[in-house]
Specification:
Main location: membrane
Order of helices and strands: HEHEEHEEEHH
GO molecular function, one term: metal ion binding
Number of strands: 6
Shape: flat
Pfam family, one: HMA
InterPro entries: HMA_dom, HMA_dom_sf
Protein name: Heavy metal-associated isoprenylated plant protein 20
């Protein structure tokens, strides 16, 4: 009976007299990383580092694709930092299957280093450039395809289009 009262008191915002605070529980997540691994030693080093994290349920490594999949009650940013702490180059998995992209061979999505059946997860045709964070925010506000004016030149709906065709 006492446990029930403490539970209801906790739900209503009371301390229950014991000072226990309810922690927000993390969601079960699947985090995919691209980690450069050349040999079994690299693989073992990454596996042991990620397996030692609190909340990790499983670690799967595909060395051929250089893909690491971590399942558990963890945050993606912490998993990435832990993978980078091994000294290996690590980043979030940047690829998606061909079937999820409408134009997989457009500049910006096609990547010859991608595993078979995968392309970059960028929006096709959009230019992604590096720079300061402020520049990137400005570019995100004015995002557009770099050659839209060329395709609009022959568009029937454009009153100023070329009429030679």
């Amino acid at each position: 009976m006492g446990g029930t009262l403490e539970y209801l008191s906790g739900l209503l915002g009371g301390s229950g007299g014991h000072g226990h605070e309810m922690k927000k529980r993390k969601q079960l997540q699947t985090v995919e990383l691209k980690v450069r691994m050349d040999c079994e030693g690299c693989e073992l080093k990454v596996r042991s580092a990620l397996s030692s994290m609190k909340g990790v349920e499983s670690v799967e490594i595909n060395r051929k694709q250089q893909k690491v999949t971590v399942v558990g009650y963890v945050e993606a940013s912490k998993v990435l930092k832990k993978a980078q702490s091994t000294g290996k180059k690590a980043e979030m998995w940047p690829y998606v299957p061909y079937s999820l992209v409408s134009q997989p061979y457009v500049a910006g999505t096609y990547d010859k280093r991608a595993p078979p059946g995968y392309v970059r997860s960028a929006e096709p045709g959009y230019v992604v450039t590096a720079g300061s964070q402020q520049q990137q925010q400005q570019q995100q506000q004015v995002v557009g395809r770099p050659h839209d004016h060329l395709t609009d030149m022959f568009n029937d709906e454009n009153p100023n289009s070329c009429s030679v065709m």
